[in-house]
Amino acid sequence: MDGSDRHADTLAVYERRAGEWATATSARTGEVAAFVARLDSEPDLPAGALVDLGSGPGGHLPHLPPGTVALDAANAMLEMAATATPDTPLVQADLRALPFADRCLRGAWASRSYVHVDRRNMPMALWDLHRCMATGGLAGLTLFGGDADHEGFDGDRFAGRSFSLWPQDLLTDVLEGAGFSTVSLDRSGPDACHEGDPVPDLLLT
Length: 205
Known about the structure:
This protein is α/β, with parallel strands linked by helices.
């Protein structure tokens, strides 16, 4: 099965089981609060929009600044986000091809969404994110540490999903190759994972 099919299979899981997934997981507000604090502390942050990339059912949206755009590939997730935060702008799109103009984003938050991108497609996906970021903007991404290329894992409660896991050095090289000039990595402990997630996380800001 090729990477495109695995990506489609992952999306199908979220479309079919969005309600179950939302019930089984909880928004990790500490991480998003730290990201917002970074936004607030940047004196030279450019103008532009904020976006939650891979917003899911919208658990982080109440903790992000008003007007933050919710983007997800799964319509079922966006429908739940619309119910949770009715005034939120919604965009259904693929992380690998963002529908935003060049340099229009002052901030982007992506919590465990790029984990579903095949590592072979990640350099261009991150380049596309960088294209959308205004100069001096801030992106916060949470990915999985480890070493696996778009694979499932045993015991996944939502079987059919695929994940990419990243060695820190390789991930840093890919981010810098995509154009991000400052990369800060913070490895979370195993207790920071959602139930059903496979490995510790890497928080990138």
